[in-house]
Amino acid sequence: MKKIISSILMLLILVSCSNESVEDSMDSQQDNSQKLLPIAKVNEYIDNELKEKGDLDWTNAPAVVLWSAAIHSEGMITIGYGNEDESFTENRSPQLINTKNNILDVVTSIEQSTKSNTIQYDDPILNFIEIRVNKLETIIALQETDKIRYIEPSYSSFLPKDQERNFGCAREGRIVNPEDYRIITPNAWLPWSFDVHNIPEAWEFSTGRNITVGVVDSGISQTQKFLGEDFNDGFSNGRTVEQYGTFDNSVFDDCGHGTAMSAAIASPRNDDAMPVGVAYNSNLVVYRGTGDVLLEGRKERKAVSKAIRELGDRSDVKIISMSIGWVWTVRNIKDAVKYAYSKGKMIVAAGGTSTQFTNWYAVIFPASMKETVAVTGIKENGKRCFVCHDGKKIDFTVAMERDAANNRTLPVLGFSSDVRNVVGGSSIATATTAGIAALVWATNPDMTREQVLDKMQKAGEYYPDRSNKYGYGKIDVLKAVQ
Fold first, then answer.
1. b/e map of 15-47 (b: 16 or more CB within 10 Å)?
2. Which end of the chain is more exposed for a tag (fewer CB within 10 A), N or C?
3. Contact (CB, 8 A) for 195 and 287
4. 299: burial class by Cβ within 10 Å (0-12, 13-18, 19+)?
5. Which of 297, 353, 300, 292 is nearest to 168 (CA)?
6. Of 218, 167, 193, 213, whose CA–CA distance to 431 is shortest?
7. How are beta strands 128-132 and 372-379 bridged, if at all?
């Protein structure tokens, strides 16, 4: 989750070059002759909302801002319909169907288009549609239409163009400091932080067997056999790994982030001198739902929403790990999280990672949701890691950064089978926590999410108290599985 905040700061430099305020540009928006706001003006509005409110609500934005953001996004907007408590429904009522049709009637009458040309996507379970608009008048009418939960443009121009892609990606191998692991039988590498959390002792009680963890990320590398054909190897056996793709028509990782997160959770314990995963006998269901860690574009947001929904439908999946996110709430993903949560899934999400901290931004989306378990990373001495976000919405921490150096984090499998990687931030903390949850759940697969979470909380270093920055803190995994 690297570079989010630093990119925002770069953006502030860009937008500060203009003296004209967003409010000045909004004085007149009565008709379609209103001047389209430039990207810098839209970004200025976003930045102000984030600083003042901590989040962005597109629905109640000035119509010209919402319309301009949509036009800068190929005219694409997402509309959530129904009452506020109707994020999803498996049997859509006549009232919901009428609400959706009424929205489409409003759009087609103003745009002078057909429904087939207007609607781009209609989710079968989540109550949202994706449509194309061209006119400011359409946005104004939609903001006055009943039973609309949200209107969001598929806006992806908040980051500078040269920093929009490859966040968190690392395909090259990295050298692991020999002090950052130790050898365990049958010749596997144990990452240093596992001892901090008493994970090796917990393996006497649980290795994650019969628990399936879903991962929504950039997928698994086609060249990493230990998350493929050799997933069952050494002490890891009798389990399965599945790969799916909802983004870019591929199941395979071309970034490296998803491979690293999947490895942290469940890489095998074998004799190949490779880093072992936390729950080395758990099953994996991995979705390529994004190209990197940032949910900045329409395709990624829709793909991640679909991946979460599909994982929610699987009775075997107990945990969903998401080391990805964005700087404001994405409502169709929020709908999907609520759906998966309603199915009893534990959704573990990254609190945020950036190369530079600010005083006004804490936990990113979707970790900011109450339905998720928010995780961040800390140093081995318990202090804040160099790049990790913290705040009152954090639930747990993971020791993932050595005191001696910021770049000495956690060893995991590399992008290819013959190399290793070193990964840090709230991303690796999240994947580690998902693996810990699998260990706890495997002690009694009939437990509910709430029962598992209760065991994790009671094993936290601050329990029964809760830190304003770190939640329940580090988990003593041995205590949690006992």
1. beeeeeebeebbeebeeeebeebebbbbbbbbb
2. C
3. no
4. middle
5. 292
6. 213
7. unpaired
Supply the mean pLDDT for the chain. 91
Note the pLDDT tens digit of each residue in 74-123.
999 999 999 999 999 999 999 999 999 999 999 999 999 998 889 999 99
Written as one letter, the residue type at 416 is S
Is the omega angle on the peptide bond into residue 464 within 30 degrees of 0, that is, cis? yes
The three-state (H, E, C) secondary structure of 252-316, written as one string = ECCCCHHHHHHHHHHCCCCCCCCECCCCCCCEEEEEECCCCCECCCHHHHHHHHHHHHHHHCCCC
Q: Is 305 exposed, middle or buried (0-12, 13-18, 19+ CB in 10 A)?
A: buried
What count of other Cβ atoms lies within 10 Å of the Cβ of residue 99? 21
- Cα–Cα dist 6/2, whole Å: 9
User: For the domain bounded by 178-481, which CATH number is listed?
Assistant: 3.40.50.200
Domain with CATH 3.40.50.200 in the chain: 178-481
Distance CA 81, CA 78 (A): 10
How far, in Å, CA of 347 to CA of 214, rounded? 9
- Neighbouring-strand partners of residue 325: 294
The two beta strands, 212-217 and 283-288, are parallel
Give residue 439's pLDDT band: very low, low, confident or very high (50, 70, 90).
Answer: very high
> What token pair was written down for 208?
């994650």
Sign, CA dihedral 469-472-478-480, equals negative
CA separation (Å) from 244 to 166, 237, 287, 289, 469? 20, 22, 5, 9, 35
- The one-character DSSP state at 219 is -
Distance CA 8, CA 6 (A): 5
Structure tokens at 60: 């109640």
- The yes-or-no verdict on residue 8 having pLDDT over 60 is no
d(CA 221, CA 385): 28
C-alpha to C-alpha distance for 265 and 436, rounded to whole angstroms: 8
**105: CB partners within 8 A, 6+ apart:** none
In the chain, % of residues over pLDDT 90: 84
In the chain the first and final C-alpha atoms are separated, in Å, by 33
Residues 334-363 have pLDDT tens digits of: 999 999 999 999 999 999 998 644 345 789
Query: Running DSSP on this structure, what letter comes out for residue 421?
Result: E
